[in-house]
Structure formats: C-alpha cells, structure tokens
Design goal:
With 416 residues, this protein is mainly β. The protein has two domains: 208 residues, Sandwich (Immunoglobulin-like); 187 residues, Immunoglobulin-like, CATH 2.60.40.290. Helices cover 3% and strands 35% of the residues. It is elongated, with a radius of gyration of 24 Å. The termini are far apart.
C-alpha cells in the first residue's frame, strides 16, 4: 500500500501535533524536550501478520542526523520476518533457507533498516522516505525532519492481543550517541484525508523515544571556540588539545601543505595539525564598538579534510541576544529553553545554497557572518567577559571554551 512521495502540508502539521513528545522526556538543558520519536502504526492485518508504517520525528531543535544517514534496529519478540518494504531496506537478508518459493525481504532476528536514496523509483517510495537517511531539525527544515517507511511483517500475530512489540530498539547515525527506551502501546494514530473530511485510525500504535548523549557519542569534543577583539592584539585561541592531542609523529593529523586531495575515505577524520586538534573552530570576534551598538564577527572553520558539514548549525548563549538588530550571512532563530521570557540562546545556520554546507578543509572551508547588537543601558556592560559567549554548540555538540581568566581585554570605555 505504497503512498505518494510528497505529503500535503496540512497532513504534516496534523502529524506533528498528534505525535508531539511528552514534556517529561527531557535530556539537554538547552533542548529540554529534544528527542527522536519513532512511531509504529499497524495499518492493516494480513493472513500471518500486518502492514505497518514506521515514522521517525526529529524533535531536537538543533541536532540533526546527516549523511550517510540513520540506521534503525530492533529485536523481534517472536519469529517474525519482513516480507517486503517500501521506502527503506534492511542491510542484511539473513538466513531464509527454510522458506520455499516466496522469500522474505529479511529473516534476521535483529534487522537493521536504512533509508533509500533520493531518486528511488516511484513505486518503491512512501511519503517522507528516500532522503538517504538525513533527518533535519524542525528549526532548519521541518518538512525534512520526518522520515518514514512501510513494512509487511509475517509470522507476527494478527490481532492486538497476539502481536508482540519488538525489543531493544537502536538508532545510529554518522556518530553514536542515541539511547532508545522501550516500545510502549499508545492510543491508535488518527489519519485525516487531504480535504480533512474523513478520519481513519491505525489498528495499533506503539512508540519509542530515543535521546542523545554527547558523552556516549564521543569521549572527546568535536569543536572549540576562540575569542578576539579589534581593540586588542590578543587572540585567545582554542585551548591546547581541546579535541585531543597531536601524536608526536603526527600520525593523527597532516600539515596543510602536504594535502593534495581528500584521499581515500576510511570513516575517520583527517585533521589539519593544529594545537587544538578540533575538526571545527568557532571564532567570536568583537569587531566594532559604537555608542548605541556593537558588532560581532563569527567565523566557523572546518579543519577536517574528509568531511563536508551539510545543513550545519551553531547554537550560542549570550545575554545580549535579545537585542540582535541585524544579521548578515546566516539564518537565525531565538531559542528559549528556560521560558520566562529569557532570550539568551540563538541558533544560526547557513543560507541555501550559499553557505549551508561547510566544506572540507581548505580555502572554502569556512563560513563568516556578522551580528549587530543594540546596547541596553539598563543591562549592558563589557566588563568581566560579558562581550563573549557563555556556551557554543556546533551540530548539537558542546564546544570547548577558553578559560574566563584568559579572555581578551577590552578598553576602559567599551561600555559607552
């Protein structure tokens, strides 16, 4: 029962509301309700099982799954098989030797499913499939923050009382870090026709919630922040060994003049040798100081010769973000994780097709933008490092900041 490849906007909006996560499912302090929710809707019964549509919703505000995309896995509760799939495929068929004639798509006890690629033939598509596993954030691209596939399950039971929920769900991306909870039965999902005049519902629905931990994803950070000001010659670079240290013989990095191309992909980064050894550096530069305004230049640099960061984003905390007056070179959205009208967190991302891809290390491996902020006489001060950000995240990972005592000095009259 393959459906069309494009969902109507009204159906998308309804799906988001009906599938929104509970407020109690919190993880990151800057994104307290952030998670990836997996919804499994049994659409119809078959002689030995059912047909289901599985949908993933990325409810994280600033963390997406980039190329080569997501991998979703689980363990069957009984001896289920997957007869067929639309919009996705399993990575292995498994041992189907006991079947004669009609061979299942997958006989593995613990299948792993991946999205199909763009350009997949129309008869193999379902709405919200076939994006190569890329799952955007709702802030950047809400229409691509959803991914779906359809599967026909056999040897599974044919009623809500005989179907057993799969166990041990796993969600993997280009880097690890997601932990999935148990599948829980929910109220069956309601579906509405395009004209909104007819409603149908799933035969059975269950849900799985997966949350992200940077600690689980990697033991060392992946980005760092350096600080500078035009009024001072001092540049406070990223702390030494922010993202690990260079080996004495330089085997885990290369000098830029020795690179003649990206080389063979090994799944590991190929970094330029730097004191900080981070794939990405964020430069916050206090560029100009006026009577009523001040200007900041932000530069994001990619030091990885093998990675293009597609649809990257940067989240920064600063107490003056409530007074952003002008922004050039980036998209911007305020985040209010704490409520109460506190607006000190901003999300920035590139402008398509201008700079939404942070390319491999080299002359084009940097993105630059400027912010103009208004001074509020009731709260404004440049004292004690106020001009510099409190925290920065790149693609959802917390970046290493310089120690506050090392911040660049500002002139005595900086507050006027």
């Amino acid at each position: 029962m393959a459906t069309g490849c494009c969902a109507a906007a009204v159906l998308l909006a309804v799906a988001l509301v009906l599938s929104a996560p509970d407020a109690t499912e919190a993880y990151d302090s800057l994104d307290p309700n952030g998670n990836i929710t997996i919804k499994w809707d049994v659409m119809e019964w078959t002689p030995d099982g059912y047909v289901a549509v599985v949908t993933m919703y990325n409810y994280q505000q600033f963390r997406h799954i980039g190329s080569p995309g997501w991998q979703l896995g689980w363990t069957w509760a009984k001896e289920e098989v997957i007869w067929s799939m639309v919009g996705a495929q399993t990575t292995e068929q498994g041992d189907c030797s006991k079947f004669k004639g009609n061979i299942p798509h997958s006989c593995k006890k613990d299948p792993t499913v991946v999205d199909l690629l763009p350009g997949t033939p129309y008869d193999m598509q379902i709405a919200n499939c076939c994006k190569g596993g890329v799952l955007s954030t709702f802030n950047q691209d809400p229409e691509n923050a959803i991914s779906s596939f359809q599967l026909s399950v056999g040897l599974a039971g044919t009623t809500t009382k005989t179907v057993k929920l799969p166990k041990n769900f796993t969600l993997r991306g280009p880097v690890p870090g997601y932990t999935c909870g148990r599948a829980t039965v929910r109220k069956p999902t309601m579906f509405f026709s395009a004209d909104g005049r007819r409603a149908t519902r799933a035969r059975m629905t269950w849900r799985v919630v997966c949350t992200y931990s940077q600690f689980l994803a990697q033991k060392i950070p992946s980005c760092c922040v350096s600080l500078s000001a035009s009024s001072s010659n001092a540049i406070v670079d990223c702390p030494t060994c922010s993202c690990g240290c260079q080996n004495p013989n330089g085997t885990n990095c290369v000098k830029i003049h020795l690179i003649y191309g990206p080389g063979k992909w090994t799944g590991e980064p190929l970094l330029e040798c730097t004191p900080h050894m981070c794939p990405v550096k964020i430069q916050w530069h206090v560029k100009q100081n006026y009577k009523d305004y001040w200007r900041v230049q932000i530069t994001i640099t990619n030091f990885d010769f093998r990675t293009n960061y597609t649809e990257w984003n940067l989240v920064v905390q600063h107490p003056n973000f409530d007074n952003i007056t002008q922004l050039s070179g980036l998209n911007y959205k305020p985040l209010t994780p704490y409520g109460g009208g506190i607006n000190d967190t901003a999300m920035f991302w590139g402008v398509k097709p201008y700079n939404d891809v942070l390319t491999q290390d080299g002359t084009l491996g940097a993105v630059q933008a400027e912010l103009l902020l208004r001074k509020d006489s009731r709260t404004f001060t440049f004292e004690k490092g106020w001009a510099f950000p409190h925290r920065a995240y790149f693609n959802g990972d917390n970046c290493v900041m310089p120690s506050p005592e090392n911040y660049p000095p500002l002139p005595p009259n900086a507050s006027v």
